[in-house]
Amino acid sequence: MPLKKHHKWLIGSFTSLIIIFMITISVFSYMIFIRQELNYNLLNEKISDSKNSLQSQINLISEDLIDTQVLLEESQQELSSLKASIGEDFSGIYYDAVDSVVIVTTNTGQGTGFIIDREGYIVTNYHIIEGATAAVIYTSSDGLYDVQLIGVDSIMDVALLKIEENFQKLTLGDSDNVDVGEKVIAIGNPYGLQFSATVGSISQIHREGPNGLDVYLQIDAAVNPGNSGGPVIDKNGKVIGMVNFKVKGAEGLGFALESNFIKQAVNDIYQQVSGEDLI
To answer: Which residues pair with 123 in a beta bridge?
Structure first.
């Protein structure tokens, strides 16, 4: 039976309403999706901003901690320097340094030396080993080591030795910055009294030595036979000289090769065997 005209109109209207409804639902769904996408992106941006902010805060805290650590170390060093400079206490510097000081014993005598490189390189006076046919090294921890002669500088009275072990080293300071009156400590082996320490002052700089060169510090810290080759250490714990000789029959007249010339002699010796500087 054919549909009447008003029936067709109703069906068409209903279909249109369904289509409009579907379109509306689709548009509404799309808008919800877009809004969720925007919210998701905003959330990601906030999370990213929060991460960046947190990382920045962590970096700032880390930098503050590093700065604080540096300040603490500097304060401790300044305190140690202050105490040493006014002559109160060199004991901390002694105990920091003594593990790097050695006794050089040969078949002709004894002297002192000190470690200048962690791989076991030792500097001492040439006259300690001159003419010797056998030598050993003693450390403050009662270690006994065979020793190898790397080379010598007879003019500067410097010998470079090596033992096969890793050690704490002593650092050479800049002897051009040494002041008259500055407090120092000398560590050595006077008359076989191992690892003895004496405290004194720099009496003068650039004194002339037996080699005719103005390369020696004059010190009033007591030094005796056996101290030769031992370090003279400043209030900052750095080696500014190596004990070399004293005026016989006089007290408080010791002389130490200045650290800048120790460095020059050591590097000249090491250059001959390796082609490069050691320190």
So the answer is: 114, 160
Which stretches of 107-261 are assigned E, i.e. beta strand?
Answer: 110-117, 121-125, 135-139, 144-146, 148-153, 158-162, 183-188, 196-208, 214-219, 231-233, 239-246, 254-258
Residue 227, token pair as written in the block? 């101290």
Report the catalytic residues. 127, 157, 228
pLDDT at 172: 98
- Asked if residue 216 lies in contact with residue 255, where contact means CB atoms within 8 angstroms, the answer is yes
Distance from C-alpha of 217 to C-alpha of 229, rounded to nearest angstrom: 14
Instruction: Report yes or no on 233 lying in a domain.
Output: yes
Residue 207 in 3-state DSSP? Answer: strand
Question: Whole-angstrom Cα distance, residue 124 to residue 126?
Answer: 7
Amino acid 248 reads K
Write out the two tokens for 94: 């002694």
- Shortest CA distance to 182 belongs to which of 131, 233, 120? 233
Q: Of the candidates 119, 125, 131, which has an alpha carbon nearest to the alpha carbon of residue 104? A: 125
Predicted confidence (pLDDT) per residue in 187-197, tens digit: 999 999 999 99
Chain segment 61-85, per-residue pLDDT in tens: 767 667 767 666 665 665 555 555 5
Q: Is the pLDDT of residue 256 over 70?
A: yes
* Residue of 93, 112, 110 whose CA lies nearest to 102: 112
**pTM listed for this prediction:** 0.70
Specify if 144 maps to a domain.
yes
Say yes or no: 116 and 53 in one domain: no
Domain hosting residue 202, numbered range? 175-266
Q: Which of 108, 139, 168 is the last residue of a domain?
A: 168
CA proximity to 164, closest of 198, 127, 118: 118
Question: DSSP H helical segments within the chain, as ranges?
Answer: 5-85, 91-97, 126-129, 259-274
